What we know:
A: 3 domains; five-stranded antiparallel beta sheet; 11 helices; B: Ubiquitin-like (UB roll); DNA polymerase, domain 1; 5 helices
Amino acid sequence: MRRFEYHRADTLEQVSRLLTELGDDTFLFNGGTDLLVEIRERLRRVRHVVDIKQIPGMSDITYDETRGLSFGALVTVGRLERLPLVRKLYPNLCAALASLGSIQVRNRATVVGNVCRASPSADTIPPLIADGAFIHIYSTTNMRVVPLAEFFTGPGKTVLAKGEIVTGITVPPAADNAGKAYIKHGRRKAMELSTVGVAVSLCMDDGVCSDIRIALGAVGATVLRAPEAEAMLRGTKLDDAIVKSAANKAMEECTPISNVRASADYRRDMVGVLTGRAIKQALETFA
Amino acid sequence: MKRIVEFTVNGEEREMAVETCCSLLDALRDDVGLTGTKKGCDVGDCGACTVIVDGQPVNACLMLAVEAEGRTVETIEGLQPDVDVLHPLQDAFMRHGASQCGFCTPGILMMAKKLLEDNPNPTDEDIRFGLSGNICRCTGYTKIFDAIKSAALEMEAARS
Lengths: 287, 160
């Protein structure tokens, strides 16, 4: 492997200082499932890695009915995926977690790492955005909490400034009247990056959709919401006709590109198909 | 710069002197001398390097050796319960011809061991899901699945 210096940090303050002092070729080392591959395949120039896994207080997972689900930056995909509470209350997130890489990768990769990598095709991002998650950011001068939907600025790019570190994510509580789904579309079931990923989180009151969020993965520079499609669906009974027109609207709202995995036209078509399917799947919660 | 890493491998406390940028896979093979764990892709795609760290299967190529400090690592060399005694999975793999070139076998055996610990009676779907991070390029999956099902039955019979 290409050589790099390994640093082990014990506090967030120390990480922040190392990130600022060591220069641009310094990267946080958390799960490492992406970083070590990028180093080995020479996709990223890395001189220093800062291992954050010894820092206390970032391995917790908590849930309460007012705050919702919170998990620290060190929580692995596998650990969250195996929690019965996540399976029950966040089936959308659970589907995304279970579709990421392989079991071996999920035992190392962290959810926060998948999010911070800011890939438009990252599996965990659409369900977290559809659920209205928040991301917690540490810096030595200013701690802040940012809605996840405002965290990404482009492929691989986020609002994080130099020396800032994400400490965890909070997902609002799951209401009794909520339905959720995430559908990943790929060529195979495992070890696959999404060609398109669609997450839907909705609320039903007396058979009427009181709220809905649709998040589309791998069809834009960042994971996108489909605000016009959502507006068409709010206040309706989500019958087949309106779901079909909203799915068509979502196809207009996405901005896919063509790459090795699929063409832009195919991705746009699949947004139509999967948006309809994800809404139906989210509604099955009430069936 | 080399660091001394103390860890437990297959029940034995060991020390290894490793470069900080060395993967656990390279350290196991080159420094500890346990070459049963195979290097297939070296980027976490193939699962040939699967080892069990603190009870969870991981790709040894995607972990740094320095991260093994204080942890418990199980490799294919530790699968046999005793000298000249095979693990039921090893026995079943031989009887079913579940190994062709054999390069993926150590990783698959470690993954199957964990699978049967968590789920002693796996369905075909459970086995497929459990082995989805292990690639056999001889594509002999059918015999691998047969062997795992057969080992599960034997282990069940031995328990009752």
